[in-house]
Amino acid sequence: MKIANLEQLLGTLKKVSDDITKTLPFKTIHSFLDDLKQIKPTWPSLRIGNLVAPTPIVQGGMGVGISLSGLASAVANAGGIGVIAANAIGLLEKDYYKDGREANLRAFRREIRKARELTDGIIGVNIMVAVSDFHELLDLAIEEKVDIVFMGAGLPIKGLPVEKIRKNGVKIAPIVSSARATEMIFKMWKKIYNDVPDAVVFEGPKAGGHLGFTEEQLDDPAFQVEAIVPEIAKVLTPYGEEFSRQIPLIAGGGVYSGEDIYQVLQAGAQGVQMATRFVATDECDADIRFKEAYINCTKEDIGIIKSPVGMPGRAIRNKFITDTEAGVRPAFTCAWKCLSSCKAEDAKYCISIALNNARRGVLQGGFVFAGTNAYRIKEIVPVRALISELATGYWIAERQKVSSKLENLVTSLQKLADRYKDLQTQVIELGKAYEQAITTPSALMEKVSLSELREKYVSTQAKARKLQLKMVEKLMASWFLLEPQAV
Ligand SMILES: Cc1cc2nc3c(=O)[nH]c(=O)nc-3n(C[C@H](O)[C@H](O)[C@H](O)COP(=O)(O)O)c2cc1C
Asked: Are residues 274 and 407 in the same domain?
């Protein structure tokens, strides 16, 4: 319906421009309008240095085995950036309890290599700064020459092997929750490394998983994507100029539809990060019961938990959560101090074990992280189908915006064209009367002198020419309005 509206407008614009340009040599306008009918759904690519993702979507890393090589490669094959999450990845290994560090490294390396076999697209990894083996995991990612490392849960500032990162062609993107944190990271990178990160991810308060906000901030409009994105963009601009590079901003948290993607890009981001929607895909690496928890949940089920890591988190609330909140403490063995700040003896439960149980589909022994919009998901689909749904949604949103602007232009153009037609008729009649008056002066009406008639004829012609120019201006305005879509 909405597309039809634009098609209709394009038709009217063509008709009006046909009328106007009958007398003008504006062939390009006609062929341009014809070309517009051939436009295919498209969206802007996401560029991070020499990396170009034709689909401007980063699949958010989902720890403890939810985004591994299966999901990441499928997203990369669909033109986006696929991300393998390193967090507690060793829980996939049998010997995690013997040597957690070693198990993490082995599983991480295997998944990166597997993903590389499955795609030629862009593969990134997500490493939490707060984990005890952050530096080992980062070294491994650099060694394996992943395309990009996303770093969240802490500020990636000190002790980074930036020289090695650059030598191996690896990009770095911190995950932040404020313009202040962005400023701090960039300022310190510049000071310590005389370099800056290649991109920034802003994870808003509607995201799934751990959140970098206080509970009060979660619903506050001042902390939402549309408010913070322009603030971060402002921080990035001078660094981009100083280091002569575009530093794209990727924003996420609650992004559900193609229209949402359009809005985030309109707010000033160059890409979006999405995780929740990728859980309900065939290729997501979690157990089917994990994915079905999304399909079966209601809006009210999705809530906030106080994670043992000391941050709020968004999850589908279940009996495990209410029981542990009420003081039930499931017995667990701490494999190793995987989080540098964790005090296992004080923790209500081990979050890595709880999330790993959920990954395996054992939901009574854990819970499922999810973004605010998980309840809207009704089916599990292939990644390609999801991306194509999002692309179409984006295209419709973009065209809708163009439609409303175009509507105003076409209306005023139509009015001008009507006035122009009247003037043209007047010019023809005046021309005839003037010619007659010259050749047969007796035909001249008594009260009108020849000079008056000539003056009127000339001034009406001038008015018509002025109007022509105005119409050309409006036509050009519609042209520029529509042109970005044709690129
Ligand atoms: C199941 C799940 C696990 C997640 N695990 C991680 C993680 O290990 N590291 C991280 O930085 N973010 C994690 N996140 C956050 C996502 O990467 C992403 O930024 C966020 O969920 C985006 O919001 P959305 O889910 O509404 O699209 C997780 C999110 C979900 C839903």
From this structure: no
Question: Ligand 1 pocket check: which of 89, 108, 203 to mutate, most ligand atoms within 8 Å of Cβ?
Answer: 203
Q: DSSP letters of 160-220?
A: --HHHHHHTT-EEEEEESSHHHHHHHHHHHHHHHS---S-EEEE-TT-SEE-SS-GGGGG-
Ligand 1 geometric centre to CA of 432 (Å) = 77
* Tokens (6 digits) for 86: 């390193």
Residue 476 pLDDT: 75
CB of 156 sitting under 6 A from ligand 1: no
Residue 17, C-beta contacts closer than 8 angstroms, at least 6 positions apart: 26, 29, 30, 33, 413, 475
Please state the atom number of ligand 1 nearest to the C-alpha of residue 369.
1
Q: What's the first-to-final CA gap in the chain, in angstroms?
A: 24
Task: Kindly state if the Cβ of 205 falls inside 6 Å of ligand 1.
Answer: no
For Cα atoms 64, 70, 73, give the angle at the middle one, nearest 5 degrees: 115
Q: What per-residue confidence (pLDDT) applies to 1?
A: 39
The rounded distance, in Å, linking the Cα atoms of 389 and 376 is 14
**Amino acid symbol at 219:** D
The amino acid occupying position 316 is I
For residue 279, the domain's CATH number is 3.20.20.70
> Are β-strands 122-128 and 46-48 bridged in parallel, bridged antiparallel, or unpaired?
unpaired
Q: Is the C-beta atom of 313 inside 6 A of ligand 1?
A: no
In a domain, 299, yes or no: no
Give the integer Cα–Cα distance in Å for 461 and 429. 11
Q: Low-confidence residues of the chain, pLDDT below 70?
A: 1-7, 9, 17-41, 441-447, 479, 481-487
Range of the domain at 254: 46-287+372-381
> Backbone dihedral region of 222: left (phi > 0), alpha (psi from -120 to 50 degrees) or beta?
alpha
Instruction: With beta carbons less than 8 A apart as the criterion, state whether 42 and 83 touch.
Output: no
- Residue 404: other Cβ atoms inside 10 A: 11
Contact call for residues 324 and 349 (beta carbons, < 8 A): yes
Closest-lying ligand 1 atom to the alpha carbon of residue 253? 23
Q: What does the pLDDT read at residue 33?
A: 57
Provide the pairing of β-strand 368-369 with 312-316: antiparallel
Q: What is the pLDDT of residue 469?
A: 82
How high is the pLDDT of residue 12? 75
Written as six digits, the tokens of 176 are 């932040």
Q: Does ligand 1 have an atom closer than 6 angstroms to the CB of 252?
A: yes
Q: Which residue, among 255, 233, 222, has the nearest Cα to 372 in the 3D structure?
A: 255
User: Which of helix, strand or coil describes residue 327?
Assistant: coil
Instruction: Give the Cα separation of 273 and 249 in Å (integer).
Output: 10
| Residue from 55, 63, 166, 162 nearest 119 by CA | 55
Residue at a domain's end among 351, 381, 411: 381
